[in-house]
Specification:
The complex is a heterodimer of chains A (345) and B (251). With 345 residues, chain A is an all-alpha fold. Chain A is 74% helix and 2% strand. Chain A is built from 16 helices and two strands. Chain A has a two-stranded antiparallel sheet with strand order 1-2. In chain B, helix 3 packs parallel to helix 6. Classes of the chains: A mainly alpha (345), B alpha/beta (251). Chains A and B meet through helix 9, helix 10, helix 11 and helix 12 of A and helix 2, helix 3, helix 4 and helix 5 of B.
């Protein structure tokens, strides 16, 4: 009986279900003043964490599983955000030119698809490059996207940005974000869980093994029948889809987008989250997104030094804990097991 | 089944392989030997698709495969191992064998995302097949071991297993006995004979003469990129040119 309880507690699935239940129930209780008194800011923070979890997980598919580095993912975040807004905004994009707009719940998916298309485009030159050359290419991509949205002011209102982004509606139910992000948080949480499940499905399939084989040994992957170029392109596309979708969710939550949000520093933050949490697994991106977002929000007064702090964090991780928090956790639990084993003997 | 005609490759001004011809019969264990730098591995790499020949043709069952990329050649039924071990280090033994089956599985992205019944059945069958292969190469019970934690000899065997996972009709082994002790070499020889008994043709590049002479049906000897002998092990051993090439010129 005792063992059974321990098994249940140890199974990863039950931990995941418990975590999700907590993420659903706690905000509900807060909203209804049962615990902690409601804090509007808290929902915003949770929503940010969810959005960045999608981003970091998407980046993880490319970096952690396929082994291709990107310092330009804010470009996809930007494409997702702008694409969704331009298709749904009555005063800009579609609304301005054709006088028609699409519902945001549709445009967030279309925006992700558009980001995926750009991912495929970027992969054409990227497939031939490795390491620092790939890093440079992706940085250039980020700047290219920024220049495009800043300079087509006719379309995007340039540096000023676009305000009054329409809110997401599903069958008349509005996920309004103006007074509180409470409702929106649940929408974002739903998508986050969906994207995490899909990620697990992908990486534990023939496709995912193709990705990992490329990361582990390019030559052997090729010899095993993995079409390297095709799989790298697919990885870029999936990764861009994730990040583009997150960008669209971001835009409809904040209600305002401008090129400032998608500068290359943002890409560095994404990489920091992934490295900090640990790449190539489910938990790492979640932990990284959670911790870095929380630090970032609580360090608002030190905003000027933010990049310095990230630089130091990346340096420390690469030098001492290349597998991030998840790796650190594994090391600790392994050394505890070893010590326990010695004690028994 | 494999026909190599006038195979030539030049690297700059160097002719690494020069108009080499040989044909491998179905079900044979065929040896490709020669002193260092003779062009064995280069020929081997052209057959497996790593290098594109400058001229000449390679035909597999009448179909030209020269210049095709490696992943397509694998799909057509040629699998290979490497001189230096090229396993997927972060993966378990079982996962290595699953990647080995890549060409023979068909589930794409949509069925992976939705985890359709078809995909689950395919994965289940692939696992079963991987376990069968492990048994065949006598690594059963090690499926959950991370591949780079295996001892050296077993890593070499696992590479052969991974190659077998793609159901090849022709198996290319690049110095499979390198670095093995005599016991391991005997086990390897037994395994290669067992593989042939399954109807798989084997092409072997090897330095160890006793090993090669012991198990091959026919041998092609290269020296400075040219073929200097072709025949059964007995014939080759008596060949004057081969003896000179291996023992040095008698001047």
């Amino acid at each position: 009986m005792n063992n059974k309880i321990r098994d249940v507690l140890k199974s990863k699935k039950s931990i995941a279900i418990a975590a999700v239940a907590l993420l659903v129930i706690v905000p509900f209780m807060m909203e209804h003043n049962i615990i902690l008194r409601q804090s509007k800011y808290f929902y915003l923070l949770l929503s940010f964490i969810c959005i960045y979890t999608i981003v970091t997980s998407g980046l993880d598919i490319l970096f952690g599983y396929t082994g291709q580095v990107s310092f330009g993912h804010a470009g996809f975040f930007c494409i997702g955000a702008y694409a969704s807004v331009l298709m749904s905004h009555p005063e800009w994009g579609f609304g301005k030119w054709f006088g028609i707009t699409l519902p945001p719940i549709l445009t967030i998916f279309l925006a992700a698809l558009i980001a995926a298309l750009f991912g495929i485009l970027l992969s054409i030159p990227a497939n031939k490059l490795v390491f620092h050359f790939l890093a440079l290419l992706t940085i250039a991509f980020n700047y290219l996207v920024l220049l495009a949205v800043s300079n087509f002011a006719e379309l995007t209102n340039g540096y000023i940005g676009i305000t009054r982004v329409p809110e997401i509606n599903i069958f008349g139910f509005s996920f309004s974000t103006i007074s509180s992000k409470y409702k929106y948080y649940y929408l974002v949480l739903f998508f986050t869980i969906l994207f995490l499940i899909v990620k697990q499905h992908i990486v534990n399939s023939r496709i995912g093994r193709g990705f990992i084989s490329i990361r582990d040994n390019l030559m052997a992957a090729n010899g095993c029948g993995v079409n390297i170029r095709y799989y790298k392109t697919m990885s870029f596309a999936i990764s861009a889809f994730y990040v583009g979708f997150a960008g669209a969710l971001y835009a409809h939550m904040i209600g305002f987008i401008s090129p400032d949000t998608f500068v290359q520093n943002t890409s560095v933050i994404f990489i920091t989250m992934l490295l900090f949490g640990g790449s190539g697994n489910l938990l790492g991106p979640i932990l990284g997104a959670t911790i870095i977002t929380t630090i970032q929000e609580s360090l608002q007064p030190l905003a000027d030094y933010r990049m310095l702090i990230y630089g130091i964090v990346i340096l420390i991780i690469i030098l001492f804990q290349p597998k991030g928090i998840v790796g650190l956790g594994k090391n600790i639990s392994e050394s505890m097991k070893r010590r326990g084993g010695e004690g028994n003997a | 089944m494999l026909k190599v005609t006038d195979l030539t490759i030049k690297f700059g001004g160097l002719i690494a392989v020069d108009s080499v011809n040989f044909e491998i019969n179905k079900g044979d264990i065929f040896g490709l030997i020669g002193p260092n730098g003779a062009g064995k591995t280069t020929s081997f790499n052209m057959i497996s698709g790593t290098f594109k020949p400058t001229s000449g043709t390679i035909e597999l069952n009448g179909q030209r495969i020269d210049g095709k990329p490696m992943y397509q050649i694998n799909k057509l039924g040629i699998a290979r191992t490497y001189q230096n071990i090229n396993l997927f280090k972060s993966m378990t033994v079982l996962e290595n064998l699953l990647v080995g089956q890549h060409s023979r599985l068909s589930s794409g992205l949509p069925s992976a995302v939705l985890r359709l019944g078809k995909q689950r059945h395919e994965e289940e069958a692939a696992r079963k097949k991987a376990l069968e292969i492990l048994k065949f190469v006598s690594l059963d019970g090690k499926e959950e071991v991370q591949s780079n934690a295996l001892p050296y000899g077993e890593q070499r065997i696992l590479e052969i297993g991974r190659a077998l996972a793609s159901d090849p009709s022709l198996l290319l082994l690049d110095e499979p006995a390198a670095g093995m002790n005599p016991t391991e070499k005997n086990q390897l020889a037994d395994l290669i004979i067992k593989i042939r008994a399954k109807g798989i043709t084997v092409l072997l590049v090897e330095h160890d003469m006793r090993f090669v002479m012991g198990i091959t049906d026919r041998i092609c000897v290269l020296n400075y990129g040219k073929r200097i002998a072709l025949g059964t092990p007995e014939e080759v051993q008596k060949n004057e040119e081969v003896i000179t090439a291996y023992l040095g010129g008698g001047d």
